[in-house]
Design a protein that fits this description.
Elements (H helix, E strand, L loop, with lengths): L8 H11 L7 H6 L3 E6 L2 E3 L4 E8 L7 E7 L5 E7 L5 E5 L5 E7 L8 E9 L4 E12 L7 E5 L1 E5 L8 E2 L11 E3 L1 E3 L3 E9 L4 E10 L2 E3 L6 E3 L12 E9 L2 E9 L2
Parallel strand pairs: 1-10, 2-11
Antiparallel strand pairs: 1-3, 3-8, 4-7, 4-9, 5-8, 6-7, 9-11, 12-14, 13-18, 14-17, 15-16, 15-19, 19-20
Length: 259
């Protein structure tokens, strides 16, 4: 279509525009095509046997109409199983090459959604894997290349032993009415979190039971406190302290309830 001797998604952009009866892109679209677009992968975590979804996002969609992308990963840790998009794009993917996902997408005009695609992986082992762009060639509505900045990420299993146990800052903080308390364990064991008011009175005990070695950082793994005391009543605004006891490890941090 553009006589460069290669078949790429920018050819599909021109075909889509022609088939829709569209003329050349507007002057604004051509001007925007000269802007730099950042394309990024997301950090990912999980456990062996689970499925994770890694979004492929751009920082702006103005002047972006298509692209050819490849994503590399460690095939001993992850296996790509699907690529999807809710952006209304003409999108095709190739998962047949181990350790690489290839994606091509095109639209007759600028994109509306900053998430280009979502790549699903099956976690094979509790280890780490790079999530990096092999290539990322992006095109504007005129099918000309755009300047692109690539941001690579990494997958790491929640089960990887950290160097040391740690109690981390709750989030959100300040909060009302609920919060999550993240932590990490170098050694497995029974875990208990206790919450005290500013005078040292015990307010609530969160008995988390036996926990394996690993990271407990996300909402679905961190300790959850609903802002209630041991009698089931909401606590008042103020400064509170929370402690963790996990085997021989103990630590204390401060949190704030703000109503």
């Amino acid at each position: 279509m553009n006589a460069d001797g290669a078949v790429r998604s920018n050819d599909a952009i021109l075909i889509l525009r022609a088939s829709a009866g569209l003329a050349a892109p507007s002057a604004d679209a051509v001007a925007n095509a000269g802007r730099q677009i950042t394309i990024a992968l997301a950090e990912a975590h999980g456990l062996a046997g689970e499925t994770i979804t890694v979004p492929v996002k751009v920082d702006n969609t103005s002047g972006l109409a298509g692209g050819d992308i490849s994503i590399r990963y460690d095939q001993s840790v992850l296996r790509a199983i699907n690529v999807s998009s809710d952006s209304g794009l003409l999108l095709v993917s190739n998962l047949s090459e181990s350790g690489t996902v290839r994606i091509a997408f095109a639209s007759s005009s600028s994109l509306n959604d900053k998430t280009i695609a979502e790549v699903q992986f099956r976690i094979l082992t509790d280890n780490t894997s790079p999530l990096t762009f092999g290539t990322a060639e992006l095109y504007g509505p005129d099918a000309l290349p755009l300047n692109s900045k690539l941001i690579n990420r990494e997958f790491s299993s929640w089960a990887i032993p950290p160097e040391h146990s740690q109690l981390l800052q709750n989030f959100p903080n300040p909060f009302n009415p609920e919060t999550w308390i993240p932590y990490q364990l170098r050694d497995a064991g029974e875990v208990t979190i206790r919450i005290y008011n500013a005078t040292g009175e015990l307010v609530r005990v969160l008995d988390l039971g036996y926990k394996s070695v690993g990271l407990y950082l996300s909402k679905d793994r961190a300790a959850y406190w609903d802002g209630m005391n041991k009698l089931g009543a909401s606590v008042a605004s103020g400064i509170y302290f929370y402690s963790i006891q996990a085997g021989d490890f103990a630590a204390v941090r401060k949190l704030i309830v703000l109503k």
